[in-house]
Amino acid sequence: KVVILGQDPYHGPGQAQGLSFSVPDAIPAPPSLQNILKELADDIGVKKSHDLTAWAEQGVLLLNACLTVPAGQANGHSGQIWEPFTDAVIQVVNNLDRPVVFVLWGAYARKKKSLVTNPHHLIIESAHPSPLSVFRGFWGSKPFSKANAFLKETGQEPIDWLR
User: Fold this and answer.
1) Parallel, antiparallel, or unpaired: how do β-strands 60-64 and 2-6 relate?
2) From CA 51, how far away is CA 72, in angstroms rounded?
3) pLDDT in tens, 52-102
4) Which of 4, 39, 45, 68 has the most CB atoms lying inside 10 A of its own CB?
5) What is the pTM for the complete model shown?
6) What angle, 0 to 180 degrees and rounded to 10, lies between the N-to-C axes of helices 31-43 and 143-153?
7) Alpha-carbon distance 122 to 125, whole Å?
């Protein structure tokens, strides 16, 4: 139903869990995730957990463009092996015969916009949720309510973002 595209996994010990922007609740939420949850609270309400597994269980593909990262080296595997594969995943979702929401946060994710060619899909794009760029259009972007409005308009069950 929804694709949220990230750059690469968090690079701190125990943070990466295979879902972009998510970390297990036992690990402190990184600043970008904290900002996502603040925007969620302003948009829809407060989510008690920062583990985003419940989103994935409802049809949200939390996809990073790179699927691995060296410890302590953000974007350390960019341009090596993963992008052809993850681009193909985006193209497979683009080719689905039902409308999908693509959420592109930041310049890196927005570069993938050209892969979304199906006019039935919705693209929501804004600045990245990192502390360095939230003030360039992430705050107040309301991606969660926009995604749910589109899902309802297209006859789909909305995401329970607070779960």
Assistant:
1) parallel
2) 21
3) 999 999 999 999 886 656 666 666 556 677 788 889 999 999 999 999 999
4) 4
5) 0.93
6) 60
7) 10
Please check whether residue 59 is in contact with residue 52, taking contact to mean a CB–CB distance below 8 angstroms: no
Residue in the structure block whose two tokens are 């006859």: 155
**9 pLDDT tier (thresholds 50, 70, 90):** low
List alpha helices for the chain, DSSP H. Answer: 31-43, 53-57, 82-94, 106-110, 143-153
- 93 three-class SS: helix
User: Is residue 156 pLDDT above 70, yes or no?
Assistant: yes
Contacts of 82 (CB under 8 A, 6+ apart): 65, 66, 67, 68
51 is catalytic: no
Angle at 58 between CA 64 and CA 10, to 5 degrees: 25
DSSP string computed for 75-92? TTTTTTSHHHHHHHHHHH
**CB of 64 closer than 8 Å to CB of 78:** no
The full length of the chain comes to 163
The whole-angstrom separation of Cα 112 and Cα 91 is: 10
Count Cβ atoms below 10 Å from residue 100 Cβ, excluding itself: 24
